[in-house]
Structure formats: structure tokens, C-alpha cells
């Protein structure tokens, strides 16, 4: 046979995967034929071999459009069926001269080669799937190791503070020192609670397909945000927080999640700004969207750090006594995404601002 090919045949295309051309048919690997002009398209439908010794003497194919178009007299094509039962394509051959191909030996040989091709394609598919699974497992293993290492370090600090403070409380009577230790316990407990919430949300987001939200029409976000700010003032009693609220339109959102987002952003702002500085919070809504901005003075965040700031376990340049799992901004970003919104950051030498924007209605 002067021309043979392994063809990928779908409902839309006929594409040559491999060819052997001794008659200058002109088709190379990657080349295409119009699907409807091929007998392979008919084989895709009935999935039976088609064998023709001499087109001119065949009652069925003497006037068939395919041999008339491509000028062949002998033809053989057998389906290539994958292990899953999916039809892949055909192993086919043509020649402008008649040949005796309708024999058990020839058909058996083509069928055997079609089975070998299918076996090879299945093997390649299994290798690709195995490599993909391996890569996924490597990523999970790296995340697990990183998670456990940071978790062990960061939870140990507040736990030690609580343990030491409680032991000292048992020995002391001085009211001022007792109050100082109570503040340590309170702050450490607050940090641990935040770490645990972030851990649970991270696990839920990675294993459950994303953070879930429950929207409430006309959520009273001003009340929600005010409550978070008041709680943070208890933890940071000596810090100044300036608020500007302007809600002109109801917001369809998950108030608890927005509160969690603000808690993460505000905690970062208070932690990474100087004691005497003011953290500014502005929030408002209009007919199109709800916006929340948390701004603080402090060091400018480098561009390289900003690029990975919303990735899990990314903490930028960690300073002493400012440890964290590096999940807060990641989870805040996931909360924004769950609302169909965005969380962006801008930073310069004077101010760093995190801005949440979500549609008012969705």
C-alpha cells in the first residue's frame, strides 16, 4: 500500500498522527483532512473495519465520494479502540492500484497493529496520570511539611506565654504585675484563636474546593466592622484606630467572613506599624460595590514580596515577635474571591493599604 497513516478521528477532525507516504499523497504528521470526506468518519460511527480490494468493482464504494476525491482503488482501515472503550481513530492505508487486502492475514495484521497502538496510547496516558499524581503529591507533601514546621513554631510561642504567665500569677499578689500577665494571656489566647481559625479555613479551602460563604441580604456591615474594631482595641489598648464609614447601599455578603477578613487585615496593620501611628479604616457601599480599606504607616512592602503576599505560608520579611502562619492574607483573599470580589494591596514609603472590593449584589 502506497500510503498509510495512524489517524486521530473525532466528531470534528481527522488528524494524521503518523504517516508512511510512498506515492506522494502529501499528508504529513499533523496534517488534516476534511472529516466528512473520509471513510474513517463512517468507521467512527459504526467502529468496524472497512476493507476494499478494488474500488471500481465494489458495489458499495464504486461511486463513493471518498475514493473519487482521493483517487485510490484499494483501501483498508481498522478502528483503534482504547482500553476504556473510547474510539481513538484508525489505522488506515490506501493505494491508487487495486491490491488483495481483504484476507484474514492482512486484516489480522492491521488489527494487531491497531491493538498495539491502543496499548501504547493507554500506557502513555497512564504515565501522564502517574506523573500528574506524583507532582500533586509532592506539592501536598511540601505544603504539609511547611505547614507543620510553621505551626509547631508559631503555636509554641503563645502557649509558652500562657503557661509561664499562669505559673507567675499563682505566685504574685501585686495588682499591676498581675494585670500585665493577664494581658499577656489575653493577647496570646487571641493569637492562638486566630491561628486555629486560619488553619481550619486553609484546610477547608484546599481540601473542600474553596472557602464557603453564606450571604445575608442587606448585611449590617457597619455593625460587623465596628464589633471587630472594638475587639481589636481590647487586644491593642494603646493603639489608635481611625474609622470612616459611608454605607449608602445594602450589601449582600457573609458578615462573619467579612469580619474575619477585617480581623486578619487589621491585625497585620497593628502588628506591622509603629506604636504611635494611626491605623485608618474606611468602608462604604454604593449601588455597584462595597469597599473596605485598611491602611497603616510602616515599611514599604517590596514588589517581590507583594507578588507572593496572598499565597499560603508567605509572610514577607518576618520581624521578631511578629510570627504567624502566613495564612491570614491568603484566607482574606479567598474570602474576597468567594464573594466574587478582589483584595489588592498598594504600598509605598508612607503607607500600605489593603483594599477589598466586592459587588453589592450577587
From TrEMBL:
Keyword Heme: no
E.C. numbers: 2.7.13.3
GO molecular function: kinase activity
Catalytic activity: ATP + protein L-histidine = ADP + protein N-phospho-L-histidine
Membrane spanning residue stretches: none
Alphabetized InterPro entries for the sequence: BphY/WalK/GraS-like, GAF, GAF-like_dom_sf, HATPase_C_sf, HATPase_dom, His_kinase_dom, HisK_dim/P_dom, HisK_dim/P_sf
Record's keyword terms, sorted: ATP-binding, Kinase, Nucleotide-binding, Phosphoprotein, Transferase, Two-component regulatory system
PROSITE patterns per UniProt: HIS_KIN
Residue stretches making up the Histidine kinase domain: 150-362
Protein name listed in UniProt: histidine kinase
Lineage of the species this protein comes from: Bacteria, Pseudomonadati, Bacteroidota, Sphingobacteriia, Sphingobacteriales
Amino acid at each position: 500500500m502506497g500510503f498509510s497513516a495512524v489517524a486521530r478521528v473525532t466528531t470534528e477532525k481527522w488528524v494524521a498522527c503518523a504517516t508512511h507516504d510512498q506515492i506522494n499523497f502529501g499528508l504529513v504528521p499533523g496534517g488534516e483532512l476534511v472529516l466528512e470526506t473520509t471513510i474513517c468518519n463512517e468507521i467512527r460511527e459504526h467502529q468496524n473495519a472497512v476493507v476494499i480490494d478494488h474500488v471500481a468493482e465494489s458495489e458499495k464504494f464504486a461511486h463513493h465520494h471518498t475514493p473519487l476525491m482521493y483517487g485510490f482503488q484499494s483501501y483498508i482501515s481498522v478502528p483503534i479502540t482504547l482500553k476504556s472503550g473510547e474510539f481513538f481513530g484508525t489505522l488506515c492505508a490506501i493505494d491508487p492500484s487495486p491490491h488483495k487486502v481483504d484476507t484474514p492475514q492482512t486484516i489480522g495484521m492491521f488489527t494487531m497493529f491497531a491493538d498495539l497502538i491502543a496499548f501504547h496510547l493507554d500506557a502513555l496516558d497512564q504515565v501522564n496520570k502517574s506523573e500528574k499524581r506524583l507532582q500533586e503529591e509532592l506539592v501536598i507533601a511540601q505544603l504539609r511539611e511547611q505547614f507543620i514546621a510553621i505551626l509547631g513554631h508559631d503555636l509554641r510561642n503563645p502557649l509558652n506565654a500562657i503557661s509561664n504567665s499562669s505559673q507567675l500569677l499563682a505566685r504574685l499578689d501585686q495588682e499591676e504585675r498581675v494585670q500585665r500577665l493577664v494581658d499577656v494571656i489575653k493577647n496570646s489566647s487571641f493569637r492562638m484563636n486566630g491561628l486555629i481559625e486560619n488553619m481550619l479555613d486553609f484546610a477547608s479551602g484546599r481540601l473542600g474546593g474553596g472557602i464557603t460563604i453564606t450571604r445575608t441580604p442587606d448585611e449590617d456591615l457597619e455593625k460587623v466592622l465596628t464589633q471587630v474594631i472594638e475587639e481589636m482595641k481590647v487586644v491593642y489598648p494603646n493603639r489608635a484606630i481611625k474609622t470612616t464609614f459611608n454605607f449608602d447601599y445594602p450589601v449582600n455578603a457573609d458578615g462573619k467572613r467579612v469580619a474575619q477578613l477585617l480581623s486578619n487585615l487589621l491585625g497585620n496593620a497593628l502588628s506591622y506599624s509603629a506604636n504611635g501611628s494611626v491605623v485608618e479604616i474606611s468602608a462604604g457601599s454604593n449601588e455597584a460595590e462595597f469597599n473596605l480599606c485598611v491602611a497603616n504607616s510602616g515599611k514599604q512592602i517590596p514588589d517581590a514580596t507583594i507578588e507572593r503576599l496572598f499565597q499560603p505560608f508567605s509572610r514577607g520579611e518576618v520581624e521578631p515577635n511578629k510570627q504567624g502562619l502566613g495564612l491570614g492574607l491568603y484566607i482574606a483573599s479567598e474570602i474576597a474571591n468567594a464573594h466574587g470580589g478582589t483584595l489588592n494591596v498598594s504600598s509605598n514609603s508612607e503607607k500600605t493599604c489593603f483594599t477589598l472590593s466586592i459587588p453589592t449584589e450577587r
